[in-house]
């Protein structure tokens, strides 16, 4: 089964061709980072217009690189939420047009479910139930996955998402956008015990997160240095901040696995590309005898291969969307609105 996947929820225009949810024939990711960089974040109107300019050529590139034409596609999958409404609409319209024109099934995919399924490209039959730590630019969720396509939200952030905290701290450090990869790189050169930034564990047994405290602590620290005229050691700040965030993420993911008696842990979302998070979770899961599954770093951030993979499992269940499918900017994981 060959599925064409389309992803336009934020600032990546991505189209992929994936066979049987496992074999990536192409995965074109056209990032708009340069366009948004000068604003320090994604500008929704610009993102939407850029998607519109790019979508047809990215579809063409994906088919070319996969060396197939439209007639060989069995279904078209598209992200219809959550995300920026104008950005989503471009992908949804393209997906619907292709499905209608070729008379093939349309599959509507939740962007966060796509992030989860980035894991399944390499691991099509993981051992359920699974605890998945979803950490991205807009989400920080701990999810229990009892079987394919079923999700129980165990906890999430009460303020900033993990990726958002990385981006904001990078900004005050004068690093570029997106900030996660920059902090990750700089942190490798610093001492993570240099500065004691706070870790928010919230109430006992809570699987919720909070990252606004650690973010504010970094800002206050930088202001204090400036007032006192003390030079800032940026690698130390980056390393200490990254350590504070990763400690809480790893502790809570392992706590969830214990609480729900699961043997498999998955990482998903852009922050899953973080080197310390991957290393630390891998080290500590191994001690506990848990299986850790992570997507390769390139499949952690937004891409259409993960959308086509999630769609393959919906295809097997004949879970198709009608051609009236619309963008749903606030779509929740586990709910379908079509
Ligand atoms: P969402 O998926 O919640 O809708 P999004 O699609 O904007 O949000 P992703 O593309 O999944 O988010 O991830 C982007 C985020 O991941 C950014 O906040 C970025 O800084 C962060 N990120 C990417 N690489 C790393 C890294 N190595 N370390 C930490 N954070 C990272
Ligand atoms: Mg992005
Ligand atoms: Fe994303």
TrEMBL record:
UniProt-listed InterPro entries: ATPase_NBD, Gcp-like_dom, KAE1/TsaD, Peptidase_M22_CS, TsaD
CDD domains, sorted: ASKHA_NBD_TsaD_bac
Binding, Fe cation: 111, 115, 302
GO MF term list: iron ion binding; tRNA N(6)-L-threonylcarbamoyladenine synthase activity
A Pfam family assignment: TsaD
E.C. number: 2.3.1.234
Cofactor(s) the protein requires to work: Fe(2+)
Annotated GO CC locations: cytoplasm
The reaction(s) this protein catalyses: L-threonylcarbamoyladenylate + adenosine(37) in tRNA = N(6)-L-threonylcarbamoyladenosine(37) in tRNA + AMP + H(+)
Keyword Secreted recorded: no
Gene3D superfamilies (UniProt xref): 3.30.420.40
Binding site for substrate: 134-138, 167, 180, 184, 274
Enzyme class at the top of the EC tree: transferase
Cofactor detail note: Binds 1 Fe(2+) ion per subunit.
Main location per the UniProt record: cytoplasm
Ranges that cross the membrane: none
Protein name: tRNA N6-adenosine threonylcarbamoyltransferase
Protein's organism: Desulfotruncus arcticus DSM 17038
Lineage: Bacteria, Bacillati, Bacillota, Clostridia, Eubacteriales
